[in-house]
């Protein structure tokens, strides 16, 4: 099984996390993962936020910063929020980010996250 590199919890850098979260697409991904915490999401559920190439880039940035875990499973990649690691490293920070991400306009249509607002 292929594994992807993730930083250890003690290697997660606050400046890198801040820089990584300064993007609306990444905030939408984090907000959606937080709403569905405890449940792994597939990369395909985020394709409404951009092209496959764009989403691969954004998920890699989130993974490299230590914000999400991406686990290959067959032909899919499962994405989960690294809440436990982030809360241990930066107490209360993730909750603040999730609360602010509520302003990012996205909706779920056909089990896929897309930019926009509910009509």
From TrEMBL:
Pfam families: HTH_20. The keyword Transcription regulation applies. It comes from the Bacteria. Residues 6-101 form the HTH arsR-type domain. This is ArsR family transcriptional regulator. Gene3D superfamilies: Winged helix-like DNA-binding domain superfamily/Winged helix DNA-binding domain (1.10.10.10). Keywords: DNA-binding, Transcription, Transcription regulation. CDD domains: HTH_ARSR. The keyword Transcription regulation applies. GO terms for molecular function: DNA binding; DNA-binding transcription factor activity.
